[in-house]
Amino acid sequence: MDRRTFLRVSGAVPVAGLAGWPPPDDWERLRRRLSGPLFRPGDAGYPEAKQGFFTMYDDRMPAAVVGAARVEDVQEAVGFAARHGLPIAARSGGHSYPGYSTVDGGIVVELSRFSGIEVRSGGQAVLGAGAQLGPIATTLAAAGRVLPAGSCGTVGIAGLALGGGVGVIDRKYGLTCDHLVAARVVTADGRVRTVSATAEPDLFWALRGGGGGNFGIVTGFTFRTVPIADVASFQLYFPPAAGADLLAAWQEWQPTGPDELWSGMGLAANEASLGGTFLGPESRLKELLDDLVRRVGTPPIEQRQRVSDHLSAMRTFDDHDSRPSAAAGRGTYIGTSRMLTRRLDDPGAVVEVLTRDPLVRTIVDSAGGAIARVGARETAFPYRSALASLQFLHGAEPESGGEAGARRSLAAVRDGLGPEFGATGYVNYLDPEMPDWARAYYGVNLPRLRAVARKYDPRGIFAFPQGLSTPRSTVHIGAT
């Protein structure tokens, strides 16, 4: 069931809305009230404006894309959607795996114009919700600062931070959301709220790991950053047949390593690799890697190690991510996830599931360290004690079986891992077919998150198929 059908069946969208509601005059009044552009079907620029990162959702037809240029534009869009019973979604980087930010028949609030990046004295960074990780890292590096975050340069800061935010130095410094000081958010009532630990702390708590799109449209963030430092990065490539031995050795090796050590594995039918970063001397890193190789029992085919600045290290991991992708900077692949919450009893059996389909690739990102020193209920991110997150990827090109075939393949992996993984998942890797998705993504924090959603969005303005808001049962249509 796509989002438009979901909202229609739930009563959130009036039937007339599927046949031309709202009237053209109402759209024109909205257009005149906006500082930024409004793109409607048939307008020049609409085909480009409606596109997210993933090509699979290019056939979706939003009723409008609001190119928000200021906070008031976001307020206008939210108010218009509320009055007319239209679904609404914000888009930052557009990397939603199910394409939820390309809302069929509704309003997309496109935030790329909120791309400001300001580094203040003392190291705080003020970021627009449309800023992407690459420009953020570059600007902060010029000021001698780093925000712990992901390595994919085109990902938007909003989606990343609202879901938690894993990255290549988070064992030392924690998740991206752990550095959030304040956020500016437009809630369902159209109010602009600046939330922090002391201003509406319940909403501030929810925004740190509760997932994007659930509580309002965030337009800006203030983060603490950390001083920049040189990073020793490494890559080890083992024979693919050593995958089970690598996973078995890694799950004993990584948790006992220092916080300064982060690593990620790539596992596939033709791959068994390990890459990572170390915030310390090369000699100590060599000792750690030699210990891992001894545990694996098979020498790597190739090993690389170098010292660079954090920005260069991030770009290296972006380059080596090797996700299935399309041309022109867009992607044609899907993903899903599980969380590894304890050491595996049978790593070999797990690798057999992961590598059964030659088109599936698994990325394992280590956790622990500073992440685990925050309680599971202190922020909305529930998996503080996890050993790692696992992301499973599959190309969705027609020759690879398309989206439907990719989802079948990933479901076999996701659901074939057994009780050692259970109902777990990372909310930033949303999967529309995830069983028991609410418990999987939010764990022990689900009841509190639903309560926050009811408080700030009682009418379900921001409802979507895997959202926390209750869909609207009745909609009162009024003039704009």
From TrEMBL:
Protein name: FAD-binding oxidoreductase
Ranges that cross the membrane: none
Cofactor: FAD
PANTHER family associated with the record: BINDING OXIDOREDUCTASE, PUTATIVE (AFU_ORTHOLOGUE AFUA_1G17690)-RELATED, FAD-BINDING PCMH-TYPE DOMAIN-CONTAINING PROTEIN
Domain of life from the UniProt record: Bacteria
InterPro entries listed in its UniProt record: BBE, FAD-bd_PCMH, FAD-bd_PCMH-like_sf, FAD-bd_PCMH_sub1, FAD-bd_PCMH_sub2, FAD-linked_Oxidoreductase, Oxid_FAD_bind_N, Oxy_OxRdtase_FAD_BS
GO molecular function: FAD binding; oxidoreductase activity
Keyword match Oxidoreductase: yes
Residues in FAD-binding PCMH-type domain copies: 58-228
Gene3D superfamilies given in the database record: 3.30.465.10, 3.40.462.20, Uridine Diphospho-n-acetylenolpyruvylglucosamine Reductase, domain 2 (3.30.43.10)
Any Pfam family hit: BBE
Keywords carried by this UniProt record: FAD, Flavoprotein, Oxidoreductase
Family membership noted in the UniProt record: Belongs to the oxygen-dependent FAD-linked oxidoreductase family.
